[in-house]
Design a protein that fits this description.
The protein has 152 residues and is an alpha+beta fold. It folds into 2 domains: 36 residues; 96 residues, Immunoglobulin-like (Sandwich). Helices cover 27% and strands 32% of the residues. The chain is built from 2 helices and 9 strands.
Length: 152
């Protein structure tokens, strides 16, 4: 009888250990998966909880050659406001253009059209290779290309 009780207790301990191992592996895998399919978010201090609720989506870039501006749309798909800090567009030849977005806040579910003068290195049809938008608590770097068929 005592052997049966000891055996049952050992079996229970082994089952619990296996369940905890599986649960910890699932938690690790889900974090890694989330990291792979979402933008990198850097957390600092008290803003970490706000950053976790922030998710922005950036549209394709568009060069309006008639007005000489670069345009794109930022949509806030998160549950907290996203305050834009900066935006930089890079081209394939290594140049870059800082775009003035500082102070714009996009509320949850909202969108913002960013319409900014093109830097002097971009009046022609240079191809933009990437756009990096920085919010108050995270950096969203999204590789975007633009259609240059309308450039002359």
């Amino acid at each position: 009888m005592k052997r049966k009780a000891v055996s049952d207790i050992l079996a229970l301990v082994i089952i619990i250990a296996i369940m905890l191992s599986i649960a910890s592996m699932f938690t690790y895998w889900s974090k890694e998966y989330a990291k792979d399919v979402t933008d990198e978010v850097s957390h600092t201090g008290d803003t970490a909880s706000a950053c976790m609720r922030e998710f922005i989506d950036i549209s394709e870039l568009y060069i309006n050659t008639s007005s000489g501006t670069i345009e794109f749309i930022i949509e806030n798909k998160g549950t907290s406001g996203a305050e834009l800090a900066s935006a930089v567009a890079y081209n394939i030849s290594g140049g870059y253009c800082a775009i003035s977005v500082s102070g714009k806040t996009i509320f949850p579910g909202g969108i913002a059209l960013v319409n900014s003068s093109v830097c002097s290195i971009y009046p022609s049809c240079d191809t933009f290779d990437a756009l990096e938008v920085t919010t108050s608590c995270s950096t969203h770097a999204v590789k975007r290309s633009i259609d240059l068929t309308e450039c002359s």
